[in-house]
Input
Amino acid sequence: MTSPVEHVAPGEQTRPVGRVASRESTRPIAPWLQLCPPGTVEIDLRDGPVELPLDGPVVLVDQRPWSRRRLRRTARELGVVLEREFVVLPTLERPMVVVDDVEEAVRYFWTAVATVPPGLAFAVPASALLGLARRAPWRWTGALAPARVVVGRRR
Output
C-alpha cells in the first residue's frame, strides 16, 4: 500500500503525508490507530507542514510543549473536525497509557491507575508528586503532558 504524498513541484523530493492505518499490516500499530477506521491517515506535526487528502479520518500527533494548542490550531487550519483528544504517557514512541482528555478519564487515571512502583529509590518524592497530580485541576494533565493525539475527520 502506498501512502499519499503532498503536492510538490516536479523534480522535488516527496514525503509521505503520514502513516495509513491498515488492519492487514504486520508492523505494530500505534494504540490510538486501533480506535480508528482502516485508511486513517496519521500526521506527525514534528515532521513539518503537510497537505491532507480531500476527506476522511485523520489523526494528528505531536510531542512538543504546548501540543494541545498547536494540534487544535493545525486541525482548524486543515479543516479537520475534532472528534476525540488523547493524552499519551510517557511518550509517543513508547506509549504506556492513552487517556481520553476528558475530566472523568483523567481523574480516573490519577486516582485508580497511576501509582508509585514498589522499590523505587525515590518513592517519597514520587509519592508526593503523585499526590499533587491527584489534587491538581484535571486540565493540567493535558496541558502539561507534551504527547498528544487528536482524532478527527476532514470534510
